[in-house]
Amino acid sequence: MSPSRSSNSLSLASLLTLSSLIPASWGMDCADILTNGVHFNLKELGGPHVVHWSETYPELGQTYNYNFTLDICNKLKWHKDGNKNTECTHGTWVCGMREEVDLSGINNNTVVTPIDIAGSYKSTGNGRTLDEKFTRLKDSKSNADSAKEGVRIELNGGRFPHEEKNGLDQRAIIEFVCDPERTGLEGEEKDDGEKEDSSEDSKRLTRRDGECEDSDKSLRFCGYKKETPKDKGVRTLRLEWRTKHACEKNAPPDSGSHWGFFTWFIIIFFLATAAYLIFGSWLNYNRYGARGWDLLPHGDTLRDIPYILKDFGRKVLNSTQGGGSRGGYSAV
Ligand SMILES: *[C@@H]1O[C@H](CO)[C@@H](O)[C@H](O)[C@H]1NC(C)=O
Ligand SMILES: *[C@@H]1O[C@H](CO)[C@@H](O)[C@H](O)[C@H]1NC(C)=O
Questions:
Q1: Residue 11's pLDDT band (cuts 50, 70, 90)
Q2: What CATH class is the domain 25-250?
Q3: Which residue ranges does the chain devote to CATH 2.70.130.10?
Q4: What per-residue confidence (pLDDT) applies to 298?
Q5: Which residue, among 70, 28, 72, has the nearest Cα to 46 in the 3D structure?
């Protein structure tokens, strides 16, 4: 008895380990984001997408220009002539390229630094994983969010600097918000897209804190700040992605309601018929002392139903076979 039980728990344990290992090593399945029974398919939004942001420290005479690249369906690929100094670590899903510009003019150097924000580094680095988390916006604790339709995805695993144990942890939180009018690719900028025009730049400067950038693009930058879900803090890249793929049009509860109505209709019909027959029989019994067939309301009619149907069928048959073939009668 005890051996079989231990082997059962053993196989269960290995199953659990397997299932916990698979997502970590394969990453997230963008075609099937499941949260609280609701599925989202974000496959159409796959491939590398770029978002820009500038941060200026006037007192230091410094500006940081960021290009954030993300692929929600796969890890990012290195460019042809890429190297460790110009690309994020292999296994990165969300990468920040930081360009440090010295405004003072003393030093003309611009330094470019890759920052691993989210990814799976089981075999390629510090061992941290994507550890993706999904939240349906309607189930969100905050009132503002629960009014929206869509899904929030949290991607972890990044750290800067990557190899340093005491580096600052990084993560990306992308809010996919339902907008039936948008595919999600409006204003899209591919990995090696063209330069932004200056009107976009001026828009970016008018952005107020705590809001997403004022842009008509479907994918918008909302912040890159240190947040404190942990003591040490996690620098969090927040993005908003407006798209029809975040709409819950395929939610299951709707399809069931028609059958539910039909079932109720049948049940009520039967109950009503039964009540009519029972009450009618009771009346006949009491008033007229009826017995047997006579108990039923319209008992005569009910008794005749088989004959009426037969008659009706014969009439229909005759009329469809056409008036021409009178000889048809002989067969009956
Ligand atoms: C910085 O660049 C400007 C123009 O490109 C040049 O005139 C100047 O000599 C440079 N300064 C240094 C310190 O390299
Ligand atoms: C960021 O993107 C712009 C436009 O695509 C490009 O000109 C610039 O070199 C990029 N900066 C970095 C640090 O990759």
A1: low
A2: mainly beta
A3: 25-250
A4: 76
A5: 72
